[in-house]
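Structure in, sequence out. Go:
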């Protein structure tokens, strides 16, 4: 056996040289005993898919569809697989959105952003319709004037009737349903300072009035008024919006409120504000569970630290135009970033977090104006 193997080796070499000669002499011929070289590594890799940490998996169908049988009658055979991208995209559905607090800075930004998508936008606020930026806001379709004072029941009834007038056809025709309700109304006030109140009262009152007035009682009443006002601004509209949405929103709709990340913990110095926002958070989380089961509505709370508005800048003591580099201004969230995120949730439901969730938004602003915002699920 060993002698036979030695005799076979020269024969194999002779065959390889003959094959090389038949290929032109210069071509290399791979020996059948050689290992096939590995393919070169890819120089370009596909980019990683960016997914929101709280987004659900997409329910979109396969991008490849099979065509129907050819009409030529050849046994009903199918043509080759064809890409669905060859077909024209379906027209985008026109959304109908209710924005409560549409006359505020964030509300006007929401209305403008939704209007640019050519959606039908209903606005509702306590501002007079003739005021600039209220009934004539860019992108606004119709406006519902809400009472500035009154009970939660009064507010809910007025909002219900106003929405009904704009969505329900009086002739008995089809009723338009809302795709989303966004509650952007709110307000801020700090605690009452007892020393400041006593000093103000001492300067403005006469000697007889000072004797008749119990400053401690007035302080207690004023603290209660601040808490009551904060509930009216930050809590009542959320209850009203959810109840109106339950009636007029289509199945699988979206309900969004604007909470406050500060209210996730105690808020010394702003008891009324923190209490109202904490109540709004609790209501949203509880409502989110029941509305999801009842009508597949997704209820989400967005919790900014502070929104970049003229009033909030004034509360911080000015503006950042002096180049002082105050980092407090860089922590303000731009209203357009919130509007863009809500718009994506309305247009693409699979991007929404789960119903009843709290999403904290953190500004990523730089001094040159670039940056953005990051949304993180906290509850």
């Amino acid at each position: 056996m060993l002698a036979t193997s030695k005799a076979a080796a020269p024969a194999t070499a002779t065959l390889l040289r003959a094959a090389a000669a038949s290929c032109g002499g210069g071509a290399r011929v791979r020996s059948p005993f050689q290992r096939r070289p590995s393919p070169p590594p890819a120089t370009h890799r596909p980019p990683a898919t960016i997914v929101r940490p709280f987004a659900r998996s997409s329910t979109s169908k396969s991008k490849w569809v099979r065509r129907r049988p050819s009409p030529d009658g050849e046994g009903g055979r199918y043509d080759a697989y064809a890409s669905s991208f060859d077909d024209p995209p379906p027209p985008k559905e026109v959304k109908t959105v209710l924005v409560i607090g549409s006359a505020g800075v964030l509300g006007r930004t929401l209305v403008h952003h939704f209007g640019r998508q050519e959606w039908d936008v209903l606005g509702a606020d306590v501002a007079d319709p003739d005021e600039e930026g209220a009934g004539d806001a860019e992108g606004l379709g119709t406006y519902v004037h809400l009472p500035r004072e009154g009970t939660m029941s009064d507010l809910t009834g007025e909002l219900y009737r106003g929405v009904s007038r704009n969505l329900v056809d009086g002739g008995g025709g089809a009723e338009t349903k809302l795709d989303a309700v966004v509650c952007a109304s709110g307000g801020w006030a700090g605690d009452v300072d007892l020393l400041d109140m006593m000093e103000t009262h001492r300067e403005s009152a006469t000697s007889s009035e000072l004797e008749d007035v119990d400053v401690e009682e007035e302080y207690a009443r004023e603290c209660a008024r601040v808490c009551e006002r904060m509930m009216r601004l930050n809590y009542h509209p959320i209850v009203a919006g959810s109840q109106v949405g339950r009636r007029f929103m289509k199945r699988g709709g979206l309900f969004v409120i604007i909470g406050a990340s500060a209210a996730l913990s105690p808020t010394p110095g702003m008891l009324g504000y923190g209490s109202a926002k904490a109540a709004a958070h609790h209501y949203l989380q509880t409502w989110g569970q029941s509305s999801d089961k009842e009508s597949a509505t997704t209820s989400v709370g967005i919790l900014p630290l502070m929104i970049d508005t003229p009033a909030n800048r004034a509360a911080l003591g000015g503006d950042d135009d002096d180049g002082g580099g105050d980092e407090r201004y860089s922590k303000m969230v731009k209203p357009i970033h919130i509007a863009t995120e809500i718009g994506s949730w309305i247009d693409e439901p699979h991007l929404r977090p789960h119903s009843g969730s709290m999403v904290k938004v953190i500004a990523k602003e730089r001094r040159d104006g670039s940056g953005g915002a990051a949304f993180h699920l906290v509850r």
